[in-house]
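Narrative progress, year one. The postdoctoral researcher (J.K.) led the effort to move from monomer predictions toward full complexes, under supervision of the PI. The following entry was the first complex the group processed end to end, covering 836 residues in total.
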Amino acid sequence: MRSFDGERWWAAAMAGGALLGVAYTLSPLTVVVACGAIAMTAVAGQGLPREERRWLMAILGVAFALRAAAVCALFLLSPHNTQGAGILFGDESYALYRSWRMRDVLLGIPMLKYDYLIAYDVYGRSNYLTAITFVQTLFGPAPYALRLLNALMFVGAVLLLFRVTRRAFGPAVAFAGLLVLLFLPTLFFWSISLLKESLYFVLTAVVFAAAAAGLSARSWPARAGLAVIASAALWALRDLRTGAVILAVGGIAIGVACRWIFAKPWRIWSAAGAVAVVALAVVVQPRVQAMVLNGLDRAATEHTGHVFTVGHAYKLLDAPFYVFPHAGQEYSLTPAEAARFVVRGIASYLVVPLPWQIATTGELVYLPEQVFWYVLIVLAPIGVVAGYRRDPMVTSLLVGYLIPTAAVVALTTGNVGTLIRHRTLIVPYLIWLSAMGACAAAVRLSAARQKP
Amino acid sequence: MSVLSGRFNVVDVAIGLLVVALIPVAYVAFLLFRTAKPVITSVEPAQLTYIEERASAGTQVSGKLKVRGRGLQPVLRATIDSQAAIAFVFETPESADVLFGEVPEGEHDLILYDGVQEVARAHKAVTIPAKASTSPTARMRVVGMLINLDEPTARSLRPGQRFPASGRPEAELVALGDPGPDLRRVSEAKGTVHVLVDGRWQRPAAFVMSCDAAVPEECRVNGITLGFANRVMPVPGTAPPLTIKIDEVVPAAPPLMADARVRFVAHAEAADLLKIGDVDEGALAVDGRGAVVVAIASRQIVAGETSVQAPVDTTQSQALIRGADRVALIDATLRMGVDPARVGFHYRTRPIAAGTALTFTTGRYVIKGTVLAVSVRSPEPAKP
């Protein structure tokens, strides 16, 4: 038997083991997530230079610690009972309570008719609910540890994008984007929420990273493996958000098309010609025009559905369309009305809410982030040009990922809160282009100053 | 192994220190993780609204309780004595609603469970008064098809029969059509087909039933909402139960007879289809309400226009194809049973007055027209 003489580690090991046991008893999922966070932090820096690795570990340490502190504060401030959950957003309670009901069904715990109705309701059914039900069937109801699990997924997604963009744009851009994504307040609270946003983000990030790696991979087995990973992520995405798979696949397709077109000058001219032909067809071909207008009519219906609900609304159609409030109204826009609708939609997507349009305390709190959004928007075009020179494929994929989501949100939203929430979906992809733009602008300014 | 004192080694000391350290840890954990037991402080009856309909999903909601207390939780299970409630709807830790179905009259305990564990009980907190004093009732005439009958039963039915035969009747058979083979409608993706059920019979019938009108805009029999076409339900009071497929629901009182002058519009070639004696079979015509053509004043062929829907796909706007055509204008007088409504009269489930549209359906044709005038012929109730 080995002697303890002269050894000091055993005391710490015993205390650590006892504390781990206590922690596992109190919240087994928290211990599992903590192990995941440690493993993620260890793996995230592999292959990076020592200094960068040190910085990355420090940033991740702070990110995890802040999230754990926030969840802990939520726990301390909430009612302490078997179902206390410290709800941050209204939709959280629906997802959580529904998952508990689904868990009760699985475990054969008696329920009321209403509970079965909620558990089996088609509305709101998603892979996220299935996932959190499964986790809580394994570990027991765990509202706070689920927040930590979501935070782990969110940080994992950020790290995936960090590794892709570091290889593409270099460490400065990657670290700038990493810091923003980990500590921007809205994204911070998203990451610890019980909403499906973290799962959505990690799945779209997996699709993006797999596409970026697959398109640059040289071996076919590697490409096939990445295609399988991307397909699995798309399968999991299919019911998380309406059109999620179309948006992700469409984004990749647009990115690949952009890369292909901008690779040769003649392709650019050909693409410009094709765009002109399509535009002409919209103008002169009634069938094509009707197709486009029908799509915009449906978008207008969605838009007014948002306008004619409670909350701070903004309008994209001409004023007479809002005289008789009616959700689900069908429109038949003229080409001129449709054009004005599209232009207002794009402009509103970029600037709403303007500082003088702020109507609620929530919007006032959001104001600094809104200003930051303007900065991101201004820097992004510079970043696209500079990024394309560094890594055309990743830049094209980032741009491709932004366009479909932005277009859909721009034309279908009519509520400021909803716009902000859905606009934040593209920030994790926009940020790298804006960071690239900031770096390129800084280099240009610095060079200009150094000129005699 | 070194010894720190005469009787304790380092392991002993470490274990002792660990135990001492665990005491505050355990206390803090107790403070943080102890479950505040739900407490019911009051239970009061609450007004039912339309919103409860979703929570009940078709089950009759007999009442709603507002439960106030402390430490109420989102997913609890409520029972009234041993009978499960329909829903426990959490609002806040201090307030929740309990929806319940049929509960016997008297005083009952309200019990809350977390899973299978009882966590709160309010003794004699739920009082269900005698039914007659709480549930407003109405009488309605349910017109439909009795299905799945054997031949002797199909032939033995008589108007005036009451169910049950003795005691307080729950349903009265007021009108009957002829028995026939049991022809059932079967739905498939593109529409419906009708199939014959071997050895079974069906018979059009109208019953007057008492129904519970506690919920606005609904009347329920044994928890089943009347008023849904094609709803299949057991006729209350029948044993063995007769099954009726509801075709329409109208007031229990016999209809008033009315004459309506209607101008029908049809293709010129269809002008001769409408004949005196034709009966509107839009719903089963067993209750005296179905309109009958009693006179045809004129049939004119005039220049007009025909419109048909253009075939379109999902990318195109709806469009009509129009063409000049000859059309028939047929002025006819219909005799029908109408029911007094809040404003004017209803023919079956639709208002009828000068200017309203009317669709006349028979096995041979469907024709549409506009009502030109209505006169209620007699204030005397018509015979069913």
